[in-house]
């Protein structure tokens, strides 16, 4: 007799779910480019705006490490942390899709 195991998929959105804010806005606020973002928002499509934001950060000497340090201070929802830990303890291994978001894997696991 073959017993089929049920497959469970648990999906978490990153912004405003795992973290209690929008990561793009958090980075802009913390690294001081909110004014530029607000100015360019009505003039560019989202991806172009994000490219421009990253170019501006680069021109100010900011690095990916600066962004990662900034994201370490982002507020995490304690209930979500508990949910992820519970899923992990039950042998469900959460996967974070976006590479910048994977920076949080070790933080969530601790």
Automatic annotation (TrEMBL):
<dbReference type="InterPro" id="IPR023214">
    <property type="entry name" value="HAD_sf"/>
</dbReference>
<protein>
    <submittedName>
        <fullName>Uncharacterized protein</fullName>
    </submittedName>
</protein>
<dbReference type="GO" id="GO:0016791">
    <property type="term" value="F:phosphatase activity"/>
</dbReference>
<dbReference type="InterPro" id="IPR016965">
    <property type="entry name" value="Pase_PHOSPHO-typ"/>
</dbReference>
<dbReference type="InterPro" id="IPR036412">
    <property type="entry name" value="HAD-like_sf"/>
</dbReference>
<dbReference type="Pfam" id="PF06888">
    <property type="entry name" value="Put_Phosphatase"/>
</dbReference>
């Amino acid at each position: 007799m073959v017993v089929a195991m049920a497959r469970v998929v648990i999906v978490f959105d990153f912004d405003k779910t795992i973290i209690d804010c929008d990561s793009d806005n958090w980075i802009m606020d913390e690294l001081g480019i909110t004014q530029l973002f607000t100015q360019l928002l009505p003039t560019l499509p989202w991806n172009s705006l994000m490219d421009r934001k990253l170019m501006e950060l680069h021109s100010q000497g900011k690095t990916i490490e600066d962004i990662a340090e900034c994201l370490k201070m982002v507020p995490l929802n304690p209930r979500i942390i508990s949910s992820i830990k519970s899923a992990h303890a039950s042998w469900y291994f959460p996967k974070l899709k976006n590479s910048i978001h994977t920076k949080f894997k070790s933080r969530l696991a601790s």
